[in-house]
Amino acid sequence: MAEKEKKEKKVSEQPETQPESREQAQPSADCEAELAAVKEQLEKAAKELADAKETLLRTAAEYDNFRKRSAKEKDAAFGNGVSFAVEKLLGVLDTLALAANAQTEDESYKKGVLMTLDKAGAAFSAMGVEEIEAQDKPFDPELHAAVMQQQAPEGVESGTVVQVLQKGYTYNGKVIRHAAVAVAQ
């Protein structure tokens, strides 16, 4: 029995739990205000994050565009430099062509000029410089410069190139020098 009394004593020593009042069961006004403040901070942080993300994406896109534009400008500057140099050397090529076509009794001289002309042509080709095909082609103002008109030989249409007075050249599709031509009337 002593054990039974001890158990009853322990049960009676424990404080009785009282039902919570309605005020304690519902969140207090302070908690609601704090919750609203935290929600507002969360929304503000989410907006700042979205703004920062958008700024980062725009900056990355601007950098990518800048990189591409810089590479394009670098290639264009190099191409312009090559075009300028080739344009200055075309006079030398023309002179070599005249020397190769000139009458001479010294065959080794003529052979040397022809070899030099071939090497110069090969060097231009390796750089991407191409001769504009003009002879017996329809006149194209983007490629040819009409210097004169001639009576059309029989069987040749009007507007056809009948004589090339000076060769024209392109570099990577860009005209360096227009071909000076005579066009059939």
TrEMBL record:
Top-level taxonomic group? Bacteria
Where are the stretches annotated Disordered? 1-32
Keywords of this entry: Chaperone, Cytoplasm, Stress response
Location comes to: Cytoplasm
Q: Does the keyword Cytoplasm apply?
A: yes
Among Pfam families, the record links this protein to: GrpE
Basic and acidic residues composition-biased segments: 1-23
Q: Do the record's keywords include Chaperone?
A: yes
Family annotation (SUPFAM superfamilies): Coiled-coil domain of nucleotide exchange factor GrpE (SSF58014), Head domain of nucleotide exchange factor GrpE (SSF51064)
Q: How does it assemble?
A: Homodimer.
The family line of this record is: Belongs to the GrpE family.
Q: Which PANTHER family match?
A: GRPE PROTEIN, GRPE PROTEIN HOMOLOG, MITOCHONDRIAL
Task: Report the function annotation for this chain.
Answer: Participates actively in the response to hyperosmotic and heat shock by preventing the aggregation of stress-denatured proteins, in association with DnaK and GrpE. It is the nucleotide exchange factor for DnaK and may function as a thermosensor. Unfolded proteins bind initially to DnaJ; upon interaction with the DnaJ-bound protein, DnaK hydrolyzes its bound ATP, resulting in the formation of a stable complex. GrpE releases ADP from DnaK; ATP binding to DnaK triggers the release of the substrate protein, thus completing the reaction cycle.
Q: What is this protein called?
A: Protein GrpE
Q: Which organism is it from?
A: Ruthenibacterium intestinale
